[in-house]
Specification:
Alpha-Beta Plaits, two-stranded antiparallel sheet, globular
């Protein structure tokens, strides 16, 4: 399984950022071919000291795809390019984008971890 990870910083208005994403980007992403699921993580204040370069991160948005070719469609099709432009043009925050191959681990018992896709 593959995913794109958007790390959002410099959020000027959290509510407006979320509204923009949920109303403009999310409906198109969930219909995009090969998209399996999306996860939005709102980062909250940590009790530990955070390095200065990480203090401004407010959201992590992950989109999961069936294959790497599905990810490539995001940058090779008109629809995908439009979605990427909307993400980058979000007036309420800045996005760093990454592509990754996802693995999940769950604790089945206290001795071993089993990898899951």
């Amino acid at each position: 399984m593959y995913k794109t990870v958007g790390i959002y910083t410099k959020i000027t208005d959290k509510k407006k950022f979320e509204k923009y994403y949920v109303e403009n980007i999310l409906p198109r992403m969930i219909k995009f071919p090969g998209v399996i699921k999306l996860k939005i993580t709102h980062l909250i204040t940590s009790t530990r000291e955070i390095p200065a370069s990480f203090q401004d991160i407010k959201f992590v948005i992950e989109t999961y795809y069936e294959t790497i070719d599905d990810v490539r469609q995001l940058v090779n099709t008109t629809e995908g390019k439009e979605i990427v432009k909307m993400i980058l043009d979000n007036p309420y925050g800045t996005c760093g984008r990454y592509i990754g191959e996802a693995e999940s681990y769950s604790l089945k018992n206290t001795k071993t971890f089993d990898a899951q896709s």
